[in-house]
Each structure stands twice: as C-alpha cells, then as structure tokens.
Amino acid sequence: MHKKVTFGGFAFPLMLLLPQLAITLVFFIWPALQALYQSVLRQDPFGLRTTFVGLANFERLLNDPLYLNSFQVTIVFSAAVTISGLVIALLLAVMADRVIKGATGYKTLLIVPYAVAPAIAGVLWWFLFNPSIGILAYAVRALGYPWNHQISGTDAMILVIIASTWKQISYNFLFFLAGLQAIPRSLIEAAAIDGAGPWRTYVGIVLPMLRPVFLSAIIVLAHLAIKSFDLVVALTAGGPGIATDLPATFMYAYAFQRSELGLAAASAVMMLVTIMAVVVPYLYSELRAGRR
Amino acid sequence: MRARQTHGIVRPKSAASTLLRLLLFTLLGLFALYYLMPLLVMIATALKPLEEIRGSTLLSLPRNVTLEPALRAWDSACVGVRCEGLKPYVWNSIAMVVPAVLLSTLLGAINGYALTKWRFRGADLIFGLMLFGAFIPFQVVLLPMARTLGYLGLAGSVGGLVLVHTVYGLAFTTLFFRNFFVGVSDGIVQAAKVDGAGFFGIFFRVMLPMAPPAIVVTVIWQFTQIWNDFLFGIAFTAGDSNPATVALNNLVASSTGVKEYNVDMAAAIIAAVPTLLVYVFAGRYFIRGLAAGALKG
Which residue of A217, B147, B150, B266 could cross-link B69, Cys pair, CB 3.0 to 4.6 Å? Predict the structure, then answer.
C-alpha cells in the first residue's frame, strides 16, 4: 500500500482541521456539555438565579411518573416499530426480489412514504383514522371494534405505530433488496441443485448472508424510534392524556412550555445516553470492519 | 412436483408455480395499497367539496372536482390568526432550503475530499466526531442552540434555520462524500499534484467533475431532511417565520368553527409536493447511489 498524498508542511492540514474542529466544538461538543451543565442546575421560577443541585434533577426525573411513563411508552413504541418495520421490509424485499420484472417501478413506488415529511404523514394518518369521518376508523368499526384514538390510549399507540412503520419501511426495504440482489445467484442455484427447497434456501443461506443489513436496519429503526417527535406531535400530541408521550415530546414540553430547563436538560442527557448505548457499539464495529 | 427445487434455474410452467406467482403479486399489490392509500385519500379529499366529505361516500372519488380547497389552502386559509394560507410559509421553506442545501453539500464535499485525499493526523478523530454528530439526538442541542442563535441575533429568523440545518447536515454530507471519494484512486490526486495543482485546484477540476452520483444523493437527502424538518422549525421560529411543515400543523390544529378537511388535505399536498416531485424525477439515482454507498459500508 502506497503512502497517501500529503502536503509538505504541517500548516496546511492544520488549517483544514481548524474550521472543522471549530464547528464540531461549537455546535456539537459545546451544546452537549451545556446540556450536561444545565442538567445539574436548578433555576428559580423567575429565571433570575441558578443554583448547583448536583444530580437532583436526575433524581427528580427518575421519580417523575410522567417521565417514567414516557420511558415505558418509548420501549413499547420502539420495539413495535423496529420489529414490524424489519419483518414487513424483509418480506417485501424477498417478494420484490423474486419478481424481477417491475421491481424498479415498485422500488420507486415504495420510496414515496420516505419522501413525505413525518409531520405530513402524521396529518394523513390522523385523517384516515379520524373517529368521526376517517375511512379506516370506519372500516375498523365495521369489523366490530369501537375505534377511537382520541379516547383510548391503546388505539392511539396502535395508530402511532402504524403510521411510523409506514414511514420507516421504505428505507429498510431498499437496503434489504440491495442486499438480496448482491447475493450471487450461483449460490442459490447450488443450493437448489443440492435439493434445498425455497424455505431452506432462505433460512439457511440468504438470511445469514443478510446479517450486516439486519444489524444496520435495526440500529437505524431503533434510534429513529427513540428520537420520534414530529409524527407523534401531528398525530396525537402525546395523548390521550400521556398514552403516547415519548421522551422527545416530554423534553419539548418541559423546555419550551413549562420552562423547567434543568429537568428538560436532564431528560435530553438521558436521551443522548440511550441513543449512544444503541449506536456506539455499532459504529465501533463498523469502523473496525472498515479498516480490515 | 420437483418444480420448486429448481426454481431459479429453469422455470417449468406448472399450475403450482403460477399460483405462487399470483399470490406473490396479490401480496405485493396489497402492500402497495398500504403505501399509497394515504396519498390517494389525501388527493381525493382535497378535490372534493365539503358536503361530499360529510356524506357517506368515504372511499369514493370526487363527483364534483373542485380546486377551491387547494386555492383556499394556498392563500386564504387561517394559520393561527393569520389568514393568508400556506403561501408565505412555503416561501419561508424555500428561502431556508436552497441556501442550506447548497452550503452543506459544498462543505460536505470539501470535507470528504480532505478526509480521504489529504490525510492528516487526527483525521480519524474528526471523522469519528462527525459520525457522532450524525446520530446525536437534536433534543440535546435545542436549548444551547437557541441561546447561540440569540447571541448571533438570528433567533426566530429563517437565517437562523439556514445556519442550523447547514451545521447539522454536515455530518451526513461529509459521510456521503467521504464514502464516495474513498473509492477514487489516490494516483489521480498525486498526478494532479505533480502537475502543480493545489488543494482547491484538484477539488474543483478533478474531484467535483467525478462526483455527480455523490452530489445527487447528497442534494436529495439534504433537501428532504431540511424541507421535512419540524423540530428545528417549531423550536427556533415563531409565527411569521415558520417553515411549511410547522404551518401545516398549525393550520390543521387551529381551524376554528367548521372543520374543513378538504382544505387540510390540500394544504398537506402543498407541503408534500416539493419532496414528492424530487423523488418522482430523481428517485432512481437516489436509490442507486444510496444502496451502493450503504453496501460499501
């Protein structure tokens, strides 16, 4: 392996480095530290004085039934969106892969939900399940289930999951399809010659080969679900009551509506920690794999 | 009867395989319905007069097609107390998205080029920090960023949004260009350098002309992200400077009196049209580039 090109002196790389470092420090590291700092302070009700309170905000947060609720909600929501997103995307990709003709058209069609803003998707699904005039609410009621997501927390949760899955599948479908099409045909033909049926071919050969795609799909789905905000605001605004209140909506309400800055910052830090717990091991393994 | 085992090599025309394919197409069709129904209902509803919606014709196509709801959504529906439709907010979004996409794409290209072709000590560290930036939950930066915008005198303005989107888009644009430029041979850069080209000479005359696939993916990605953003819009702008997504939410939530569902849906179409157009016309290149980049890792 030959050496990379480098400029003679040390000055030029440094010049390149500086604006980058400045941006990273000012817009990523500093805000993260600020949030940390904010999370150990308490402001008096008029915002005049702040006092250092140590970990008291975190203690309050973890004893706040509203926060604990949002934590529970996010676990149910993230798990449901990740699992249904994976299963449907994989199923679709396998089917689209077998139908060679028209796969391109189908791909273009499936990207549509991805193009639509979460806030707009929220409005669309809100309308479809609108208890008084929505088509799907009407259909579900015709099947004998009294749908009303404005009263029932369970219904609201189901609605948020359906809409969010709708929004997320496109991306994973594309990755799974690309992964499937990258598997050499000869491998599948060899399996067929050895007498393996389609089921055994998929379970024994194709799915194991898709492992890296699975991993990144799970990470992407899970971290997006944990961060969800727009769609939930547009669909249910966290309601009815607190049934669909996620950490992001909780944090937003505490920061911008209740002016509880210390608690809001503490919940933001908790969110950062959760996301990092999901993402960092993944990035680490990616980077290591990249180096070979 | 051994037909299924030889699938993929020869395709015998048996009844069973035809049935299987039929099932496959039916399932794919059903999922396509799941995908497209919200949009079809949106379009059909936006073209109906209000009385037709109130009637029991839930799934039906509009009988009297009318553009009146669309016109109302565009320039006379009420968003909060201001009754000028979505028009001013769409202009806000355009004023925000154009400079932010151009800036973040250009800077991302320079970064990706510098990180791959001018490797210096600390390049990996910088790249690691940028990856962190791609995953950081924006909730963490909301409060400090609000303060920074205040210092800069950009609070509540479209200019502030341009800055925020440029900075937080950089992580992704750098990633895309880095993954693309890694595949470009170092020899080309060396040759250009021997010929006396400098850092920017190589960038503009050698690297950029090779990069249209990466540019297309980055521009589409950034355009979608920024146009569709809601969180920054709702947190950093107020009233008149709201982008279209926030205004749409206010329009749907705030209409007092008779609920005009057709106007709501027409407004949703207006807010969704720019990104949908981008995918209809350039989606193929996006899909191709995205899949290639992602599989490369």
Answer: B266
Interface ipTM > 0.95 = no
Contact B214, B176 (CB under 8 A): yes
Contact B245 A116 (CB under 8 A): no
pLDDT digits (tens, 9 = 90+) for B154-190: 888 888 899 889 888 888 888 888 888 888 888 888 8
Residue type present at position B86: L
Average pLDDT over residues B265-270: 89
Considering only CA atoms, which of B215, B209, B193 is closest in space to residue B117? B193
What is the average per-residue pLDDT within B36-65?
Answer: 76
Helices (H), chain B: 15-46, 50-54, 68-75, 87-117, 123-135, 138-151, 158-182, 186-194, 199-202, 208-210, 212-228, 231-236, 244-254, 261-296
State the smallest CA–CA distance between residue A32 and chain B in angstroms: 6
Write out the H or E segment, with its range, that includes residue A41. Answer: strand A41-43
Of A7, A95, A177, nearest to B28 by CB-CB distance is: A95
Q: What is the mean pLDDT of chain B?
A: 80
Q: Would the CB atoms of A230 and B230 count as touching at under 8 Å?
A: yes
pLDDT tens-digit series, residues B199-212: 888 888 888 898 88
Which chain B residue has its CA at the smallest distance from A96's CA?
Answer: B28
Which residues on chain B are in Cβ contact (under 8 Å) with A30? 144
Q: Does A215 touch chain B (CB under 8 A)?
A: no
**A150 CA to chain B: closest CA distance, Å?**
14
**pLDDT higher than 70, residue A7:** no
Q: Using CA atoms, how far apart are residues B271 and B179, in angstroms rounded to an integer?
A: 32
CA distance linking residue A49 with residue B28, whole number of Å: 61
In whole angstroms, give the CA distance from residue A43 to residue A49.
6
Residue-wise burial string across B128-144, b where 16 or more C-beta atoms lie within 10 A, e elsewhere: ebbbbbebbbbbbbbbb
Q: Provide the residue type at A44 as one letter.
A: D
pTM for the full predicted model:
0.81
Residue B129 · residue B197 · CB < 8 Å: no
Compare CB distances from B6 to A108, A175, A192 and report the shortest one's residue.
Answer: A192
Q: Which residues, in sequence order, are CB contacts of B243 under 8 Å at separation 6+?
A: B89, B92, B93, B96, B161, B227, B229, B233, B237
Report which residue type is found at B96.
Answer: M
B121 Cβ contact partners less than 8 Å away, ≥ 6 residues apart: A13
What values do phi and psi take at B55, rounded to 5? -65, 180
**Confidence grade of residue A57 (pLDDT, cut at 50, 70, 90):** confident
